[in-house]
Design brief:
133 residues, alpha/beta, 4-stranded mixed sheet, 8 strands, globular
Length: 133
């Protein structure tokens, strides 16, 4: 085990339309932009920052690997714990967010709803379900 690998600090999304994705996180998630320039915008969750970076500026971060396109399909799912998945699902719909699937009760004890941001990054909200007795 490598010591010190215990805190996720930043997730960076590579996007084609910085303005649309930034607006999504400001308007739908209600997040504050803590940094921005012509190439990126950084928003903060309680315990994590999301760096929204123009895809054409991302190559140097992942070279020699290429930057993938949204058409390549989902390669990552980020989950946010919520108290009421049904209520949050309805709020997402009110913001014009397209629901990919759910609400659905999963066998691992969560009620989940999946959706994507304008860049195709897939998110899931998950509500802990009470244990059956």
């Amino acid at each position: 085990m490598i010591k010190g690998l215990n805190k996720l600090e930043v997730i960076t999304f590579f996007v084609a339309d910085l303005a649309a994705v930034r607006a999504f996180y400001e308007d739908v998630f209600g997040l504050e932009v803590v940094y921005s320039d012509e190439a990126s915008a950084v928003v903060r969750l309680e315990n994590l920052m999301i760096n929204i970076l123009r895809a054409e500026r991302a190559g140097m971060l992942v070279e020699p690997r290429p930057v993938g396109s949204p058409e390549d399909g989902a390669r990552l799912l980020m989950t946010i714990e919520v108290a009421d998945a049904n209520a949050v699902c309805e709020e997402l719909k009110q913001h014009g967010v397209t629901i990919l699937n759910g609400p659905v009760d999963r066998p691992w004890g969560r009620r989940t709803v999946a959706f994507a941001d304008p860049a195709g990054n897939v998110w899931e909200i998950a509500q802990h379900l009470p244990q059956a007795s």
